[in-house]
Amino acid sequence: MEDDWRNGGLPALRAELDRIDNAIHDLLMQRAEVVEHVARSGKPAAFRPGREAAMLRRLLARHHGTLPPVTVVRIWREMLAGTTAMQGGFSLAVADAAPSAPFCQLAREHFGALTPLSVHQTPGHALAEVSRRRAAGAVLPYPSETDPWWTALLRREPRLHIIAQLPFWAPRPAGAAPVKALVVGATQADPSGSDRSFIGIECDRHLSHTRLCNELAAAGLKPRSLVLLHPPGTAPIILAETDGFLADDDPRLSRPILGSHHPLLLGHAAIPVGEAA
To answer: 111, 223, 224, 266: which has the fewest Cβ within 10 Å?
Structure first.
């Protein structure tokens, strides 16, 4: 009977756990078989950060009971790492010069404990690994005025794209890596249904932060955050983060901003779970 394990004492409880473990394992093997068929279908890329984010949001929306939601995220992240590896070589280049290696920790958290990664002293070296197709993605510090690696995305050929934001799980437990990062890849991210876009603009004159925000908002690109870089002897460069999934042909990107400058789409990232859209 269905309730035998509830009333059969510890041996019955252990037997029921074994039965459930076998059922989970059977489903994992079935899932891997489906992934193999997907890989043979000619799909362009094994790593789909938008689809993965949408999948996790869907599972968390239906989740209930006492199992912590973050456990669901961890289980599925490891499973996704395994099935991505099945579809072809997948490795990461991580820019992490800190002795405690927080960005490596963050990469392991999101992409799986056994995903191959190489560690580089500078973001430029990590980006070069992606350009040379030696890595599927580069994990880099979140953009700032003091770490302007993102300016390379404005000029680098072939183009590289921001494809994900880490950590994806926003409520951070004690001991988790206390850093934020972006992932850059050679192909654009797919939409997850709740995303942010990153745009870059090269200017010819210095403007205040407030003026820049107002100009972008007037163009329909109201920024959530804005990084303004003004290197000595060069034109100012802006990185703006705005809500929504912009396409390259979005008409807002064809409108001049700050006189005659057109913003360039640098990529997208799924909004982390637990963070307001």
So the answer is: 224
